[in-house]
Amino acid sequence: MENNKKQSELDLEAKLAKIAAEKEEVRKKLVITAEELAKTAVEKEEVRRKLAITAKELAVTAEELAKTAAELAKTATEKEEVRIKLAITAAELAKYTTGLEVKGVEQTAELLERVKQLETINKSMVGRELKMVELKKENEELKKKI
Predict the structure, then answer these.
(1) pTM of the model
(2) From CA 39, how far away is CA 124, in angstroms rounded?
(3) Which of 38 and 76 is assigned the larger pLDDT?
């Protein structure tokens, strides 16, 4: 029985040693897991920090995009205003051009009428001058005869 008892004690010691070894193995795994968790926590914090930076950058980008969109809208409005002003100016120029063309035609007609009148007057005056020259010659001839 004593042999059995010793054998049982040896078995118990072997089991205890095995359990102690398993316990040490589990402890090592727990230490590794704790280290990995710590490393993961550090990495998680780094990712969180990068995400916060990215969120800030996105907010700035969104603000810049909104500003650019507002500037583009303002530019489009200004462009439309210039287009309208140009259209008005073109219409006014067309109106003035038409007015000038009509005035030019009217003035040309008036000038042609004056030219005709002047030609008529000129013919009369030239005719009269020729008659005067003729009469002077006749007068000279008559004076010579007398």
Answers:
(1) 0.43
(2) 123
(3) 76
